Amino acid sequence: MAKRASYDLSQFVIACNIGNKSALVLDEAMKTAKLDFNLYTQDKVLSFIGNGGLESPKFANTERWIKNPDPKNPIMVDSYNFFSGLDYGYLAFLFQLKFKKWFIKSFKKNDKPDPRNLPFAEPLRAIFGGKK
Predict the structure, then answer these.
(1) 31-82 pLDDT per residue, tens
(2) Is residue 27 classed as helix, strand or coil in its secondary structure?
(3) Any idea which architecture 9-128 has in CATH?
């Protein structure tokens, strides 16, 4: 586990906000974005990220992309934990130099315990219809 990010998070966020298809959401990430965050289109996910939806992002890890179709040219994947309202999320992304595009590899609820003490989170989710 590396202690420094491979990419500048702010550059990734800007790319998500541009709307020129410089960032794309991979299929698995799109599935969990729908299920976990009610973001049903690629444009919604990118807009969410590009418009400040990642509250208090914290670098988690960087590692080599295992499914890289060109293993001779290693690509790193950065991951972040973030908050979005009552939700605790996880994001992993990479930059594919060959295509000059950012790819969102993972966008889902975090499987680690939420570090915040939110005793009213579940009752609020029940009232406002949010997902667990």
Answers:
(1) 999 999 999 999 999 999 999 999 999 999 999 999 888 889 999 999 999 9
(2) helix
(3) 2-Layer Sandwich (3.30)
